[in-house]
Every structure is written in C-alpha cells, then in structure tokens.
Amino acid sequence: xxETNRKYIFDFDSTLTRVEALDVLAEITLKDGSSKAKVLExxxxxxxxxxxxxxxxxxxxxxxxQLLRATKGDLVPLVQQLKQKISKSIEENKEFFRxxxxxxxxxxxxxKEFIDPIVAEYDIPSERVFANTFKFDAAGNIIGFDETxxxxxxxxxxxxxxxxxxxxxxxxxxxxxxxxxxxxxxxADKFFAYTENVHRTKAADNADYITxxxxxxxxxxxxxxxxxxxxxxxxxxxLENVHPDxxxxxxxxxxxxxxxxxxxxxxxLMERIKGVHVLGIRSKTQVTKKVLEAADxxxxxxxxxxxxxxxxxxxxxxxxxxxxxxxxSNTRSVVELAIGQIIMLKRSIFxxxxxxxxxxxxxxxxxxxxxxxxxxxxxxxGNIGKQLSVLAEAMGMRVYYYDIADxxxxxxxxxxxxxxxxxxxxxxxxxxxxxxxxxKNFIGEQQFSQMRDGAVFVNLSRGFVVxxxxxxxxxxxxxxxxxxxxxxxxxxxxxxxxxxELQGLENVILTPHIGGSTEEAQRDIADFVPNKIMDYINSxxxxxxxxxxxxxxxxxxxxxxxxxxxxxxxxxxxxxNEVLAKYELNxxxxxxxxxxxxxxxxTDLDKDYNDDxxxxxxxxKGTIRFRVLY
Length: 630
Ligand SMILES: NC(=O)C1=CN([C@@H]2O[C@H](COP(=O)(O)OP(=O)(O)OC[C@H]3O[C@@H](n4cnc5c(N)ncnc54)[C@H](O)[C@@H]3O)[C@@H](O)[C@H]2O)C=CC1
Ligand SMILES: O=C(O)C(=O)COP(=O)(O)O
Fold this sequence. Notes:
Layout: E1 6-10, H1 12-16, H2 21-29, H3 36-51, H4 57-68, H5 75-83, H6 88-92, H7 94-99, E2 104-111, H8 112-120, E3 129-132, E4 134-136, E5 142-145, H9 156-164, E6 169-174, H10 177-184, E7 190-194, H11 201-206, E8 209-211, H12 214-220, E9 235-238, H13 244-252, E10 256-259, H14 266-272, E11 278-281, H15 289-294, E12 300-303, H16 313-318, E13 322-324, H17 331-346, H18 349-357, E14 375-379, H19 383-394, E15 398-402, E16 414-415, H20 419-425, E17 428-431, H21 445-449, E18 455-459, H22 468-476, E19 480-485, E20 508-510, H23 519-539, E21 560-567, H24 572-582, E22 587-594, E23 598-605, H25 611-619, E24 623-628
Bound molecules: 1,4-dihydronicotinamide adenine dinucleotide (NAI) and 2-oxo-3-(phosphonooxy)propanoic acid.
C-alpha cells in the first residue's frame, strides 16, 4: 500500500477501456443490414458531441438509447467484450489499482450495469463507481435511464465529485472535455488527458498533463509501475527516408518517433540529436565523434543499411551507444542489379537505348556479347559476392573471386590467390568489398592496367574504394569497354543536382546509390532494425550489435533488470555486487559480456529496489551508462 494522500478519479470509456461501451453495445444490438452502418455512425457522432460538450450530455444519452434498442440480455455479451478491451497500459499496471484500491474512484457518464463488473477486477468496488443506471421495462428492454442521477445531466461530473467531498490532492484521468470540467470548476487539482485510445484536442489543450498511457501518469507521479521509463518518453529520430514501416512499428510500440526524408549535416545533427534516444540512419549520415558527444540521451544507432563506417563505432561504444545494422536485407537487391548491369554493359544496351530516344535507329552486333562463358571476377566474397557467384554461374558465367578473408567457394567458383590473378583473368570485374576505410582507392590506375583489354567494371560497394580519375582514364583510353557505377566518393544528402567526372562517358551506367533501394529490401530492413532496437530498449539484448559485446537474455517474470555498461577495468563486477548485497537485493540472474574496452552486465533482481541503489550503482567509478528496465 502506497500512502500518497491523493485520490484518483478515472473515467471509464476510452480511458480504462479502449472503446466506448455504448458503441460496442450498438454493434451487439443492431441487426446487420443496410441501416446498421448508418446508425453506428450516428451513435458515434452523438457520443463525440456529448464528450466534447457540444450538445448536452442528457440529450446525447437520450438520443443514443433510443437508437440502441438494447435489452438486459445484451449486457452479458457487452461485459464479456469489454473485458477483452481494457487499455493495454491499464492492464499492465493492475498492481497500481490493487496498491491504491482505497483511493481510486470511477466517475463515468456510462452505466454501472457494465462498469461495475469490469472494474471489480481492478479492485474498485461498486460503491466507488459513480455512473448512470438504466431503466428497463417488464420485458427487459432498456427504455431509458435514471434521470435523477447527477451524471445524467450536463457537466454532471462536477456535482458528482463535489458531493464526494474528497480529501487530499484530487487527480482526474480521462479522455474527454467532460472530465476536464471537474478541474476547471476547481474541484479537482489536476487533469490528465488520457490519450492511449483517443486523442481529443479539446481535452488535451486544457490538460495539466497529456498522458499517452498509464505508465506516463505513474512516472509523472513517481509511483511504482510496470516499466521504469515510459516508452512515449523515448524519442526516436529516423533520417534518410527509411521505409515508413519502421515508423509504424516503433510508434505502435509506444515510442515517440520523428521521420525526416534526408540526411543531416554534422552541425544540424549535433543540435537535433539532443534528447534523442534512438537515431536511425542510412549510408549518408555521418555519425561523427562530435555528433556522439553532443548526444545527451543516445542509447542506440540503427543503421537501416549494411554499411556502418559512416558511424564512429569506437566513440559510440565508449559512450555506451549500441549500433545495429541490417546485414542481409538488401543483399539480394544488390545482386540482381549487378546481374542486370553486367548484361546491359556487355550488350551496350544504354548506348542503343539513348540513340533511339534521340530518334536514331542503329541495329548492330558491334560491342555486344553474351555473358555465357565469360569470366566474372568478384572482389569481396561476402554476403553479396557469394550470392552473385551462384546466380552468375546459373547464367553460364565462369566465376573467379578474391577476398582477403578465407572464403569457401560456392558451386564451381574458383578462388584467386591474388588480386592481380583475378584482374588478369576476368572479362567482368565487380566490386563487393566492405566499407572499411582502409579500402580507400583500393582500385586505381595500377589495377585498371592489370585488367583485360575491353573488360567491364562494376562498383556497387562504396565510392571511395575506386580512384574515379583512374576509372575515367581507363574508360577514355578504351582499356575498359564499359562500367556501371552506383556509388561515389561524394554523394549528396538529398535528391537534387549531382555532378561526377563519369558523366557523358560512353557505355557507362550511372545510378544514384540504389543498389539496395527496392521495396522488398527497404521493407525488410524496416522490420529487422526496429526489432533489434526494441529488443535492446525493452530487454537489453545486444545480439547482432556491430560494436558491442553481444548478450542474448532470457525473458524474466516479476524481476527488475539493471543494465550496467562500464569501462572494462578490473573490479567493477565486484563493486556492483557489493552495492546489491548492501541493500540485501537477491540476484535472480546475472549476465556479463566484455570486449577489450567495455563491459556489459545485466542483473535481474527479484525484489523492489529504492532510489539509493540506483544512485550508488550509477556512481561506481568507470560506469558509462546505467539503466533500469522494469
Ligand atoms: N549500392 C548499394 O546500395 C549497397 C552497397 N552495399 C555495399 O556492398 C558491400 C558489400 O556488402 P556485403 O557483401 O554485405 O559485405 P560483407 O561484409 O558480407 O562482405 C565483404 C567482403 O569483402 C571482403 N573484403 C574487404 N576488404 C577487402 C579487400 N580489400 N580485398 C578483398 N576482399 C575484401 C571481406 O573479407 C568480406 O568477405 C559493402 O561495402 C556495402 O556497404 C551494400 C548494400 C547496398
Ligand atoms: O546497405 C548499404 O550499405 C548501402 O550502401 C545502402 O545504403 P542506403 O540505405 O541506400 O543509403
């Protein structure tokens, strides 16, 4: 039992439950038919007019009851259905109702016949439920309501609360303007506009607090709750036009998400990142040391792509910021584009197509060859390189590959010991190495000179790995018969003008870094990365993090979870456990993973903790970040 000297007044419809009960009743009573939808719409309209105070409540009630044509028997399925429609965060925090049972009241303009059985399960007895009651005829039809009840009158909640004459601070939690009026009249001390189910502007505009769920209400009041930090307080900034599904998934989870179409330059990002807990980017946004240092709340960076060298991974780690990416989602898209481009180059298709666009017919087999039987040299035999190997072989190409790591050949592919060997044998050279900064100008003048005369060259990896001047020279001198380039050393942050020295060259296909830009890939990434983010935020899992010790954690029931990220120096674990022992906290599970720089320890406890424990754990020397989950 928590002593707060507060009284909590809850509204019922759309606050404790996700729905308006009379709308559900209408669904039950109205027979399917052409008029059903119209009547339902009419009932909802009248409900809203009443809630917003645009018509008198008595009028709204009378009109709805006439339309409903309900009976006593209809209340049974109504109660059953309402039990399934309790607001999510109310359900999650059932303990709040148990612990504060004496101080919780329901004041509703709904009806006790269906409210009482629902809220009884939340330890609110009938005597603390104030609502209307139905009038029935002898046959059990609902024919009206008790008109002497104050709650059947316009602004009846004011009189109802006045009559209760409650002591202590009175807080009203409701979704409608008719709840706010108790505060306006000066009988309640605070009004929380409850927006978990419906956001009513008129109520929200007047509220002392807008509370998107009960967790936020409990947080504001510093009361025990299911999760320590309400999800709506977690701010997510998604840049570079990531697929809208990501926005959907993360918003549905309750986070506050903002979506921008473009990348941000360093200075602007340093400003925008303040207060942000999760940053979502693609390949353009540079998450530099300065940006990470300006970030005061950052927990996670989600790279909605494969490459992660645009992020200062080391600084992120040292600051306790976990980075995730999507290593597989767009690989197939890149492979398909590579195949397409290789065929287009070998057939000089873009030249032929441009001629026709310019009104010229030039039918020729000149510079046009099949890919069957040609040697394909793949540099970088990773997730993309390997898939390309299989598909190219299926088209009859002879595949050679070169990789600095020891990679098993798929199918009949032949491994080359050196880059020179690969360059010398390939009719088509395609680049799929990773975005490691050490790969800068990996292919330059010397490498082009080692290629076969008339070879074609494809780069879908990163712009900086190729010396563009050398590539232009190789194309101009006809050493290469063509090239396809998707990535450039400098790429613009948003769509618009773009210049490259490769423009205007013959048989050169230029694409704006769209290798991974397919609907399928972007949708898959928008599913994969948010799941990783949510898994880390909600339970501390770092599986598949690119810069952090990986820990897969079991789900815990009735436990508190402490996440402690620290410098990997001796003795920290002992200090954590010393604090826990001092406060006689029983550890139900403890998991540790370290790398050379940081340690990540998760401790599950089966007992309530107080703020002193929190403070002491945070104060341990070497602590980078400390977070409590629930
Ligand atoms: N154009 C686009 O839209 C996209 C581009 N990419 C880029 O494609 C590249 C490859 O992606 P994945 O196959 O997923 O990466 P991966 O990491 O699975 O494979 C890269 C391979 O390159 C090898 N490698 C690295 N440096 C090398 C070097 N100097 N010489 C030889 N081998 C080297 C690695 O050992 C590894 O096997 C990355 O740079 C990625 O950023 C990825 C997706 C979309
Ligand atoms: O996945 C990658 O590394 C890519 O290059 C794709 O980047 P993007 O998401 O198109 O900015």
